[in-house]
């Protein structure tokens, strides 16, 4: 029982409370508090806030990444909203994030339930399912790139199964399925662990009581398990969705945004500005993407607060 | 008089390097290396008073680092008053410009990005170098066609030209009695012969979209369209040119479809390394790749007989041209503090024997007039075209990087929607032009 103890969930109400004021606040600031806070604040400002603000500034210029520049007002933003390739990247990214969140959570919850049941070699199985999380997304995607392009078509061809005889990666209608598949394969273990922790936080008596009342398997899941791990579900959905919005390396290694431009994500589009002399334009894109992400996060935080869950 | 053995005072030691030499021997290897390095650097400084000038040389070809190191050594022997430091990070150029410490001399592949630097005036004018007179005018035009700073300046001298065409398997051609095609009809007929005999006429690697762009797209458009004229920058003060891909490139797209129909089944799933391996194993008669693929193929199958011909796109053999790119061009930064020394170094590198030896060694073509014939049989097929200056730069190289042309071409190869490809190119080009206008009227 090594993993379960490792994965023990923290008590529900003992979440970190960084906002809690130190007791002697009005007397004088605790030096330990300052020693911990100031360096982090300074580093955060220097490496995150300052570059981000510089980026915002440049989004109002015609800067190419080098050379002269001047302010051009909101022209980059105006042009951005008229650019169908950017719109397409946004549509794809949100579609991809939605589908991935859905699939990852359904699959991981099922996996967590199975791994939490009384099965043989439970610890070994849990370790096995944890392995994808250790591998880098880029490595996983390159391996799957080979499987999709060579192994699967060859197998399908020899079995006479024509729909898979050509690589899914080279079909612009279905390439997104491959991207979602690899993303799910890589992300599921992390999500499963959080669900496992949630499942272990449910006291056994609750289930026993439900059984005594005559609840069946599905009823127990729907009325006992799910409500009790709802907090974990919300966290998984929120963190997952935010993460998938920034999809980059798996797509780069799998399809490179292709075939055509079918799987180009917003992050890829933004990054293209660095090599394309489109620095300021893609900075405007980044600012818009940032605002959208913040808006979604605030919306989700409201839901969390209503649920009484803390991250 | 025993020197202090502790390595704490490198400055004082280096100031009197000779006196400390005996002490050096006693040190551990690591300390020795560090000390030697600082000693070397400082000896450069120390002798600066006696007029040794150091110039920074940014060289863009990672495979030629040692080759250029030898050249630098030769140059330093002939010119003891100049020291040349070779660097190989092209990415360091822009940070260097921003910090005000760019290299003095650079070699770069000459295409959109380099031309953009030149348009911002970062390079000095080289037109009055002696070496400039030895460059074949049509090779110089490859650089100048991107636009000349102040209208007349020469920002770079071409050093090495890479010629690309159709690589073909001589054994398969001989087996079916097919001659190297000199017209479009002969090319299609050859494809028919191979297809009828169960041989893949052209090996396609659509998975790597750049192979479609530089091969299929550039060869067909280069043979049918005057690419340089199509992309010619507007005259000073003139209105921006409106280019229409849909109007100009449509005939080429039709011929692309024909060529696509002769590629193997499953070409969409094949990558560039797959293509090299398959061609080296004799799985196809022809392969649309440049000289960079030759070393890969030779590595897999050293005994293979390979030739290269330029893809004929019309039925008049006189129309056939080779695809070229300026793989390496020499420039001097305008801000250099040692213009005279930098120019001597460029003159040294542009000597006919240096240029020609380099290009023979690297399966490339010399940009100089009166260059000797290319002896490498694998690319000799392009030599007459280079002699006659019959070449073009690929259309894709002229497109701004913000236009994802390679992705659009891949989309076309997958769907056959040529109108969509040209419409995408037109619309994207227009959008990029719209948002780049403020930059150019800065």
UniProtKB/TrEMBL annotation, chain B:
Q: Where is this region: Disordered?
A: 1-22
What's the protein called, per UniProt? Carbohydrate ABC transporter substrate-binding protein
Q: Which Pfam families match?
A: SBP_bac_1
Would you say which domain of life the source belongs to? Bacteria
Entry keywords, A to Z: Cell membrane, Lipoprotein, Membrane, Palmitate, Signal
Q: Where is the signal peptide?
A: 1-48
Q: Which positions are tagged coiled coil?
A: none
In its UniProt entry, the species of origin is given as Cryobacterium lactosi
